[in-house]
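re: ur question from earlier - yeah i can do the single chain one, its not a big deal. heres the input i used so u can compare w yours
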Amino acid sequence: MLFDESTLRKINQLTLVASRVRAGAIKGERRSARRGSSVEFADYRNYVPGDDLRRLDWNIYARLDKPFTKLLEEEEDLAVYIVLDASASMNWREQELNKFDYARKLAAGLGAIALSSGDLLSMAVLQNGRVAAEFGASRGSAALPRFFQFLESLAPQGKTDLNAALRQYAIHPRRAGLLILISDLLVEDGFQLGLRSLLGRGNEVALVHLLAPDEVEPNLAGDLQLLDIETNAAQEVSIDGGLRNLYSARFREWIQSTQDDCRKQGIKYIHAVTDKSWDKVLLLEMRKAGLVK
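and the output i got, formated as tokens:
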């Protein structure tokens, strides 16, 4: 199992937040901002001709001699899409610091929240510039064991091409929903066009930018040969204090530009490093970003 029952109980108290995307038509456990036809009272408004007379509050009419219509709160599900970068660059570091294992736990937690809330959960796995595997759509906690089995069956491999993979994913018609991309964003050709294709489908998008500690602050020195984990391309480098400072500056610029681009497009951005407990990222950082509550 990807995490224990105690963690699952804490996770099940959360709800995923979508502030702009339209909710679906199937009633679930999620409260919608729209007013509808369920039996739970929401508010009153003045009666207007054409309102259903069964919605009139006759007790208030008898007291005030003025008709008021009862507004009822409709409960609807949310379409939740988790998109996981499963390229070889995600298979970095060992044990608890492994990016892909960490990403799977985050995906498992987000999926558990969606299923326990009655949302409609789907997941896509991206490898080699395409959608390599999919789960769902499924609803309800009974689907959680199958979802965990799906996650545990995955293995990172291949080269990253987020633009191509996300565009392919966006081509297929799906109900607009909350889409959460988990990736290290270590790509040659960028990822912005792929994200825009998702937004163009009416989705509300969140980006979980996941990195290992030594990608943030490399502990390297001397004359080295670096190998690309995805292509095996070699690069000879001489690392000293000046080069490490340059790397740190470029890294900060990259993070800031990614945050700025996400903010401009209305994308929720969560920066996660694997030396921080994954459940704290889920319970604290994602709550701060407004992705869960």
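Confidence is low (pLDDT under 50) at residues 31-37. not sure if urs matches, ping me
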